[in-house]
Amino acid sequence: MSDIWTPAKIGAVETVNRLAMAPMTRSRAQPDGTPGPLVARYYAQRAGLGLIIAEGTQPSADGQGYLATPGIYTAAHVQGWRHVTSAVHAAGSRIFIQLMHVGRTSHPDNTPHHRQPVAPSAVAPDDRIFTATGMQSIPEPRALTTDEVRQTVEDFRNAARHAIEAGADGVEIHGANGYLVQQFFAPNANLRTDAYGGSIENRARFAIEIARAVAEEIGADRTGIRLSPGATLGGLKEGPEGPALYRHLVAGLNRLGLAYVHLMHLGNEPLLADIRALWDQALIVNRPGRTLEDVGSDVRSGLAEMESYGQFVLSTPDFVERLKSGSAMNQPDRASYYGGGAEGYIDYPTLSEAVGA
């Protein structure tokens, strides 16, 4: 039986423990999408975890939705990420960069080209988004043509290649949380009549094609994907066919031999059991709201090879050390989650710093 302190093999990567840092948008990139000067320090501070999964990173200008999020599709982006990956490796951890195309969850004011958002179909999410001039309604997106869907797959391939050039150990495809890949899953966001809409098989096709392209480019053993079955973020409704779609999807992804599936688990236990049965590689489980007392339970039970944590790690750079000693974690400052500088980003104290203060 494994516990969270035993090493793990996640695809091509060996980790010193079975704890992962979940990807979290922090909006500290430079205006051109290059990781800012504090980013390397932020991730290196948290390198006690076996695997760092870096924040959502756009694979193209169309993929950006929020202010000051990083990209991985230009030479400047690659150079900026090299500082980050080098710092994490020097601190003893491994790092995957999450590739996130937000689809319709965007606004022209937040992108470098100021164009209309793109999505599976021209359906707005009935939501608002923060921009430099304050909160604004998200506009109706433009439906991608079939050729543009295929080009977006190539954008992910290109971004994955750039991530490896930047020193990342692998990439995680963001197929969760209401963004473009999940938008293709949801019948209320995907009204397409081509090969990417309608049936379960068609709505899962985009995700599988991205995974195949990325695996071809950098190796399946350096490719992961994050999923959030049943999540309604961004106004998505996967409907009664949702669980069947995920069973079909995971079976298809399993045939590609990817390094891992990273599951944001929202409570459908029968579906979680089915996904585990269908999946032969590593499973990383994130349970929103998991208490410190329950840390390690999914690894101990054999359900997961790793567990991922977000807010605990955001606020506590020495999360691993405090977990081992049973010490209290820092309280996160929600006001500084997004944007800004060092405050609420790299200034959370370690336990020794807090005691000595």
Notes on the structure:
The longest helix has 20 residues, at 146-165. This protein has a single domain, classed as TIM Barrel (Alpha-Beta Barrel), CATH 3.20.20. β11 (223-227), α6 and β12 form a beta-alpha-beta unit. By secondary structure, it is of the alpha/beta class. Helix content is 32%, strand content 17%. α3 packs parallel to α5 and α6 packs parallel to α7 (269-278). It is built from eleven helices and 14 strands. The strands form four sheets. The protein has an eight-stranded parallel beta barrel with strand order 3-4-5-10-11-12-13-14. It has helices spanning 39-45, 75-90, 146-165, 180-185, 200-218, 242-254, 269-278, 297-300, 311-315, 319-325, 351-356, and strands at residues 8-10, 13-15, 19-21, 51-57, 94-99, 118-119, 128-131, 134-137, 142-143, 170-175, 223-227, 260-264, 282-286, 306-309. Belongs to the NADH:flavin oxidoreductase/NADH oxidase family. Keywords: Oxidoreductase.
Would you spell out the secondary-structure blueprint of this structure?
Elements: E1 8-10, E2 13-15, E3 19-21, H1 39-45, E4 51-57, H2 75-90, E5 94-99, E6 118-119, E7 128-131, E8 134-137, E9 142-143, H3 146-165, E10 170-175, H4 180-185, H5 200-218, E11 223-227, H6 242-254, E12 260-264, H7 269-278, E13 282-286, H8 297-300, E14 306-309, H9 311-315, H10 319-325, H11 351-356
